[in-house]
Amino acid sequence: MRRGSFAAANRTVFRQKRAQANWYTLSITDPTGSISKSCADSTNMGIEKFPQFIRENYEVHEWRHAIAILQTDFPSEFSDVVSVLSNLRLRRSWIEVGGGNKTHLAKWIDHELRQRGWSPKKFDTKITVDGKSAESPTHEVDCFKNQVALELEWNNKDPFFDRDLNNFRLLFDLRTVSVGIILTRCDELQGIFNELGRGSSYGNSTTHMSKLLPRIKGGGGAGCPLLVFGMKKTLYDPNS
Question: What are 55-104's pLDDT values in tens digits?
Fold first, then answer.
């Protein structure tokens, strides 16, 4: 090939790659902070697999076909998650009294999942090179069962999302976790917290949906299939 033809071919390939890259960037960028339509259509196709109650009372997002994997390969764990989320109500008393090291909500979630065979799980991980090993610690997973990991982030500092996503990424790469689940709160609950005089305890720097989604869309979970549930204000029970 002559030099001019080779350069022209390179320019053509470069333009094609640049166009592809620009299309991909546009498909995942949304100034409103929500998932763009092209991304939502391709990643949330499995939401209809959940009962109506889940779809109406939780904001649900998935990545890398997490719902299909959970329902098909881990039907027992899928049923556990559906059952616990269907029974969950956000009690007024839980919000008003706070919870110290562990909130009443976290205690309730733990109790419900423990009854179904879930438990905390810490993994002993290390890297070995030429016979020399170095510790590669991962964080303990709050609730774990049969390669499905679930973390509740109700009112922690938002960097806890980074910890969870990095943990899921590492454990997925080590073939220990197949699906990572995060349960957090929707932004709309802030209005209820304010009404109860607890708004300052649930500030903008704490864990809620709008702090989580940009981290995932930025690649925080890498290749790990992720499933995210956001508790809506329709779960709030003012009489309990």
Answer: 999 999 999 999 999 999 999 999 999 999 999 999 999 998 865 678 99
Sign, CA torsion 125/127/132/135: negative
End-to-end CA distance of the chain: 78
What is the Cα–Cα distance from 115 to 138, expressed in whole angstroms? 25
Q: pTM for the complete prediction?
A: 0.78
Task: Tell me whether residue 6 is exposed, middle or buried, using C-beta atoms within 10 angstroms of its C-beta: 0 to 12, 13 to 18, 19 or more.
Answer: exposed
CATH level 2 (architecture), domain 33-237: 3-Layer(aba) Sandwich (3.40)
